[in-house]
Amino acid sequence: MTEHYRRLVLSARPHGMVDDTVVTVETAPIPEPGPGEALVAVRYLSIDPTIRTWMNDVPGYLPPIGLGEVVRSGAVGEVVASNSDHYKVGDVVTGLIGWQEYAVISGGVNVLPAGVDPLVAMSVLGATGMTAYFGMTDVGKVGDGDVVVVSGAAGATGSVAGQVAQRKGAAKVIGLAGDAVKCAWLTDELGFDAAINYKTEHVARRLAEECPDGIDLYFDNIGGEILDICLGQLAMKGRVVLCGAISGYNDEGRPVGPSNIFNLIIKRGRMEGFLILDYFDRFPAAQAEMARWVAEGHMQHKVHLVQGIEAATGALNLLFTGGNTGKVIVEL
Amino acid sequence: MTEHYRRLVLSARPHGMVDDTVVTVETAPIPEPGPGEALVAVRYLSIDPTIRTWMNDVPGYLPPIGLGEVVRSGAVGEVVASNSDHYKVGDVVTGLIGWQEYAVISGGVNVLPAGVDPLVAMSVLGATGMTAYFGMTDVGKVGDGDVVVVSGAAGATGSVAGQVAQRKGAAKVIGLAGDAVKCAWLTDELGFDAAINYKTEHVARRLAEECPDGIDLYFDNIGGEILDICLGQLAMKGRVVLCGAISGYNDEGRPVGPSNIFNLIIKRGRMEGFLILDYFDRFPAAQAEMARWVAEGHMQHKVHLVQGIEAATGALNLLFTGGNTGKVIVEL
User: Fold this and answer.
1) Which of A151, A189, A318, B224 could tie B247 with a disulfide, CB 3.0–4.6 Å?
2) Is the pTM of this model over 0.95?
3) Per the CB < 8 Å rule, is B258 touching A260?
């Protein structure tokens, strides 16, 4: 008797938060790998804000997920059958495998080196960690004495970004997060100099107190009103790194732009966007540096594990409701 | 009998366009220069959008003009009496002399080299020309093959900026201006590849036609809706140089920000502001290069002369109504 597996497909374009009317469960027979192919049993799904943007039918840095297609997502799995010269049974692989329990691969995914914890590979050493690293260093040019503000600071990227800034000489790192527990984690465990609860505190006033000489580098994960406030409080030659705009990903229509943009003239400031896609060839050196910090205890991280493929949709929504601390990963 | 002179002072904070309720004429005796001082008879006033921003009581890159103070402005004059070791009678000097017929100076203004046309010194080789030069080269990093869009293209800065782009290897230069005569001047005399009349044409559609592969460099003099359109049509690694935001200088309240700002992420784009103040020490080399282009006929410019100090207020408003082509200068 043929065994079956489950996969989640995009069956309609979402409006706002995603639910089971737009992401539906399909069941199919587990496929046999053909010549040159391998079969992967998926162990972990990487849940990232960008997945939500791929669900919209608008051009982006990757094409939209097509209707009827498996939801695109990073994942880690184990090769369980192979006719490929590149992959052998037992290899742990990582790549854009998608929200499914099994996948046939012929390339495009990488084998994790032995001894690497898949959860670390998916967080600090994965796309979110690399986004934090290159956004802070290559785009933001973080340097000695910088006063750095990070929004979405308790998220997978923000929490690492703040620590990268500290390792690279920032004088002060302030994180914005959405509840007291997250704020305490930032200051007590990650060593942020200050944390601001943007839901209960007056962000503009608190930032002005914490950054009396202005913000040298704002690492923006959320866009919206907080981006506008930070633009208005830039220090001379301040930089804004546009990493993401979570606050608008579920919105319909035109987002409201920041009205303080012309402070970039007064402050000779720079605002720059980037995508981690462009840095793949520089991952090894960055991963080596980050792995060293992890080993030395200078790079903390947290994984928010959710169980079962059917929980993937809800796990994605956590990113937008602020329900997570650290990297969200679904364990299959 | 003591002779008198006129000066224009800021007597109230303006709302919107400036008129004689906020800028009023004063008459005073022509002063005698004291020890170390010289008396300047002012010949030309440089009329620039930034003057309007100095009239607001908000912090900027220079302090606001105080109520009762002479309106701050670049000017060119001639030394007519001197007790200074630095200035001799007959010297032509340039600096922030203000809207007045006479001024006593002790320093802070520069002597124009003999043979330099004051009108060229105030336009192509002055602050507006230098703004165009450094904005295009140092901030915008204009280079071979770039598709460049300039707004306010018939203005003193925009008209020079487009030509600097051409001299520095741009593949295509498109100017936006507010009437057909200006557009014809851009294409027929300055050699722009295309001009778009933003008042009568569909800017987004025309830009998409002219820049099918997107905009590599947008030199923004006006802000507002056109900035938003250009952000939405950036090419990969596109740059936006924020030079000014004329469209909002007379507005009250918070300006509307550009909603396409997050295209900077998708396109790995950069938006950067600058002020020409930071480039004073690099003026000589830039002026030498620009003067060579002028001499070779590769840098056209136009001066919009207005007569009489009492016309200065109206001349300033021309910049915001689009009533000028090229550099606005008041001749006293």
Assistant:
1) B224
2) no
3) no
| CATH no. of A4-119+302-331 | 3.90.180.10
Residue B264 and residue A242: Cβ atoms within 8 Å?
yes
- CB-nearest to B273 from A268, A272, A275 is A268
Q: What is the 3-state secondary structure (H, E, C) of chain B?
A: CCCEEEEEEECCCCCCCCCCCCEEEEEEECCCCCCCCEEEEEEEEEECHHHHHHCCCCCCCCCCCCCCCECCCCEEEEEEEECCCCCCCCCEEEECCCCECEEEECCCCEECCCCCCHHHHHCCCCHHHHHHHHHHHHHCCCCCCCEEEECCCCEHHHHHHHHHHHHCCCCEEEEEECCHHHHHHHHHHCCCCEEEECCCCCHHHHHHHHCCCCEEEEEECCCHHHHHHHHHCEEEEEEEEECCCHHHCCCCCCCCECHHHHHHHHCCCEEEECCHHHHHHHHHHHHHHHHHHHHHCCCCCCEEEEECHHHHHHHHHHHHHCCCCEEEEEEC
Does the distance separating the beta carbons of A268 and B262 come in below 8 Å? no
pLDDT, tens digit, 9 for 90 and up, residues B254-264: 777 898 998 99
List the domain boundaries for chain B: 4-119+302-331, 127-277
8 Å CB contact of B243 and A258: no
pLDDT tens track for B204-259: 999 999 999 999 999 999 999 999 999 999 999 999 999 987 776 666 667 778 98
Q: Which segments in chain A show pLDDT lower than 70?
A: 1, 248-253
- A207 Cα to chain B: minimum distance (Å): 19
Chain B residues with at least one Cβ partner in A under 8 Å: 60-61, 223, 228, 242-245, 248, 254-275, 278
From B149's Cα to the closest Cα of chain A, the distance in A is 19
3 state DSSP class of A193 = coil
Quick check: do B4-119+302-331 and B127-277 share a fold? no
Chain A residue with the nearest C-alpha to that of B270: A272
> Could you tell me which residues come within 8 angstroms of residue B171 by beta carbon, excluding any fewer than 6 positions away?
B144, B145, B146, B147
The percentage of residues in chain B with a pLDDT greater than 70, rounded to a whole number, is: 97
Measured between CB atoms, which of B242, B245, B268 is closest to A274? B268
* Residue of A128, A132, A129 lying closest to A140 (CA atoms): A132
Question: Is the distance from CB of A170 to CB of A142 less than 8 angstroms?
Answer: yes
What value does the mean pLDDT take over residues B73-84?
96
A239 → chain B, closest CA residue:
B272
Is the domain B127-277 a CATH 3.40.50.10240 member? no
C-alpha B159/C-alpha B303 separation (Å) is 11
Taking alpha carbons only, the member of A260, A21, A233, A71 closest to residue A147 is: A233
* B242 interaction partners in chain A (CB closer than 8 Å): 261-262, 264-265
